[in-house]
Amino acid sequence: MKTQLKEMKENERLREESKRIQTLRKQRSELEQSLFDKETIISQFDNEERLREERKRIQTLMKQRSELEQSLFDKETIISQFDNQPTRKQYHHVNKEEAKDSVDNNHKTFMIKPNIPKFSDPN
Prior knowledge:
The protein is an all-alpha fold. It contains 2 helices and no strands.
């Protein structure tokens, strides 16, 4: 009887230990899932932060580009006033055809002259 009682107590203790182990495994699984979720959120936040910084950097570069284009346009205007030539359009507003036309108009066409001897040549 004592042995049966001991066995019953031992079995009861083992069941309780088994329940505790299952509870701990479940808690561990929940904690791992929670950790994974938090790491995902942190990763997304870091990506968003990098994206914000990149957008800010791009805006700064575009602003600098605009300022440089305006400065170049102002300088061309001043130079053309000295040359008494009309000002050119800003670069980003000129399409390829207009740019090609303005370049073609600035250069004179090359003409090949025929080799005709002068009458004063003794040959």
